[in-house]
Amino acid sequence: MIDIKKWEPFAWGYIHAGREDIGYRIANGMKTWAETADLPFDTKHWFVTPAAAYYRQAVRYTRAEGIDLNEGIKNERAKGLTELSDLETLNFYFDYFRPYETIRIVSKVRSPKGEKIEINKCAWAAGGGHSNPDYELLLRVGTNGIRKKIERFRGIHADKGDFYDGLTLAVEAVETVADRCRETAAARAKEAEGEEKALLERLEKTFARIPRESPRDFFEACQMFWLCFSIFDIDSPGLFDYALGAYYEQSDPADRWACLEQLWELFHETRTWNLCVGGSDEFGRDRSNALTCDVLRMAKEKRYDTPNLTFRVHPGTPEYLWALATECLATGIGMPAIYNDDCVCLALEALGVPASDSHLYCMNGCNQIDIFGKSHMGLEDGEISVIKALEFALFDGECQFSHEYLGLRTGDAAKFGSFEELLAAYKKQIEYLADYITRTSNAAQRIFAEYAPNPWKSIMVQGCIEKGLDYKNRGPVYGHAQVLTEGLPDTADSLAAIKHWVFDEKTYTMAELIDALRHNFEGYDALYADFKGWHKFGNDEADVDAIYAEITDHIYRYFQTKETFRGGVFGVGCSTFHRAPNYGYHCGALPNGKKREERLLADSIGASPGADTKGPTALLTSVLGANQYLATSGNVMQVKFRKSQFATDTGKAAFTALAKAYFAGGGQTLQVNVVSPEELLDAKAHPEDHKNLIVRVGGFSEYFIKLAPPLQDNIIARSLNDL
Q1: pLDDT tens digits, 576-593
Q2: With contact defined as beta carbons under 8 Å apart, do 249 and 291 qualify?
Q3: pLDDT, tens digit, 9 for 90 and up, residues 208-244
Q4: Is the dihedral of CA 611, 615, 620, 621 positive or negative?
Q5: pLDDT of 664-722, one tens digit each?
Q6: Positive or negative CA dihedral for 559, 236, 104, 487?
């Protein structure tokens, strides 16, 4: 007879928790898993990665999906069962959770029309998202300190017994894994020799202390960080140098570098998300340390595509850190992404975040903004196709991909008598899609709060213990949301062309333009040439830049009028991830000259790939025309440079000067590709010869040959800059 508790410990613990409270049941599942799972203990690495075992369950709880079922793992286990009773037991434990599978429940919040809006890439809503737990606090007080905090606030919220009992079980889960690691290390040390024996004895001593007490050096700090970081999932380390820098500086240089190197290999192997270094405090003082420098050095030396590395800068950032960052970029890995404290912090402060907390911002996932250890706002709550809203305005709500009326009926655009009338219709379509996103997202977040509370994150994010509320149920101090945009520059190009050729010059009528778009410009060669050839955003052209600024302002401000379920407001930014070509594919012909079959669409807040022809200064000048202080999500700005630009000290200094000027003007972020155009073309034709070629995509780096051909084309088409 199978031992179902051993096979499916989370499911067993959840079902046999003895209480109805879902948070408690999830915590009991975590605790049961910690007690029974086979833990990987490989001395090739200096660390144990619990998540490697946690993922091997057919029923589990994850940060993004909540209760998650893996049919493949269940079926694989069923293959080896010969007894009918064993198969029935396995199926019972799996099928029990079907009504509780969180993503299945969340999918029901969408109406049939909402599903079509999402399928046709007009917008989407309701992501699970990332988080940045408070590792600094955990390292400082240990789980003993967390227990004291739980008991203190249990006394204040006497009616929240199940909640606090669940948090205690989550604490016990991590302590249990640490105890088992200590016991394994002690047993194996008796049989080991040499360096392996020394390592195992060191691990035994370390786990005898952590996580209950604070670590004494960088080795112990890393062991405690990695245990808590990887116990149930792999996500974003957040302010890594802020949390671990003090332990790094008080450790032996050779030992700490070796420890960081081992950890870096694990970050890469597990595709760890966003690790953030650098930045300032609320008084403008630089907060970097020795770990900041060595993280940049490690990224330069390893040349991996992960972890996703962010470097925060401010006017007082030391020049040697700028130099390390440019040397890292020169390797071609597309990292670090560079973020401007002056812009990000002011944007957060405009939402009511005090300076003491705004300067704790960090990135997670690709480039979503979180407040380290204090927020649940670093997830993608949705995405809006800005260019699709224009398509709806031109065709009275009709999608030109599916030919269904998915937008708002704003009238026959052929009868619009002014550009202002068209712009008003466009803004109504934006608001219509924004209302769909915010309404759907809030409905989904209520479901996550009810069906997928997270007791582990609740002890790691400030506000939850204090309020007696779960991480997903308004517990964290900040609960703002983040919505991403697609196609802003393409929309500005299209509107500028319409304004010029239809309403200013009156060369063409709106009826002619709409007919040309319906027929993919066939039979309209002159119109196509004129519209495609008109001013494009990214070239310091006043007309298109002004339109870009106006529509950006409207979108960003409108979303901020909408409140989130989690207790904040909806913010906006731009991180196209890998989706830009797919959004382009789902559009018909556009007034900027894009034909129906073409996939090319802007992959950042910058110009549509290849549309900027006057160099990086003109590009950044155009982008700075819009108010980036409204962007409370990462506002990705992609720039591509030749390798030769970063091959000399003069070239790297020129880039640094450009970046500083951009940030002084109000820019939020720069994400940089350092490439050879010939190498990109050859890599597409002969991928076997370019297995290690890395490019920056849309908030993350990836090996070029792993990308889909349309995304490769998008990256190749980006304008190549020299200074």
Answers
A1: 777 888 999 999 999 999
A2: yes
A3: 999 999 999 999 999 999 999 999 888 999 999 999 9
A4: negative
A5: 999 999 999 998 888 888 888 898 888 888 787 777 777 888 888 888 887 877 767 77
A6: positive
Residues 411, 443: Cα–Cα separation, whole Å = 30
Q: If you count them, how many residues does the chain have?
A: 723
The dihedrals phi and psi of 695, each to the nearest 5 degrees, come to -130, 160
Q: Cβ contacts of residue 395 below 8 Å, gap of 6+?
A: 407, 413, 514
Write out the two tokens for 153: 């606030």
- State whether residue 416 is helix, strand or coil: coil
Query: What average pLDDT does range 618-637 have in this prediction?
Result: 95
Distance CA 288, CA 321 (A): 9
Question: How many angstroms separate the CA atoms of 517 and 527, rounded?
Answer: 10
Q: Give the HSE-up count for residue 506: Cα atoms under 13 Å, Cβ half-sphere.
A: 2
DSSP for 426-444 reads HHHHHHHHHHHHHHHHHHH
Helices then strands, counting H and E runs in the chain, come out as 31, 17
Q: For residues 180 and 158, give the distance between their C-alpha atoms in angstroms, rounded to a whole number.
A: 33
Per-residue pLDDT tens for 23-50?
999 999 999 999 998 887 777 778 888 8
CA 10 to CA 56: how far, in whole Å?
A: 11
Residues 515-529 pLDDT 10s: 999 999 999 999 999
Query: Hey, what are 68's tokens?
Result: 């998650």
Q: How far apart are CA 531 and CA 528, in angstroms?
A: 5
Q: Are strands 570-573 and 638-642 parallel, antiparallel or unpaired?
A: unpaired
State the Cα–Cα distance between residues 485 and 573, nearest whole angstrom: 6
Residue 84 is predicted with a pLDDT of: 85
**62-74 b/e (C-beta count within 10 Å ≥ 16 → b):** bbbbbbbbeeebb
Judging by DSSP bridges, how do beta strands 694-696 and 701-703 pair with one another? antiparallel
Burial track 187-199 (b if 16+ CB lie within 10 A, e otherwise): ebbeebeeeeeeb
What's the mean pLDDT in 66-80?
Answer: 92
- The pLDDT, as a whole number, for residue 469 is 98
Q: Phi, psi (5° rounding) for residue 369?
A: -100, 130
Question: To the nearest 10°, the Cα dihedral for 271, 371, 579, 643?
Answer: -70
614 CB-side CA count, 13 A: 14
Residue 620 corresponds to which tokens in the numbers above?
């950044």
What letter represents residue 52's amino acid? A
What is the three-state SS of 485-503? EECHHHHHHHHHHHHHHHH
Q: What kind and span of H or E run contains 670?
A: strand 669-675
Rounded Cα gap, residues 391 and 487, in angstroms: 12
pLDDT at 86 over 90: no
CA distances from 577 to 78, 419, 485 (A): 37, 33, 11
Residue 142: what are its φ and ψ, rounded to 5°? 70, 175
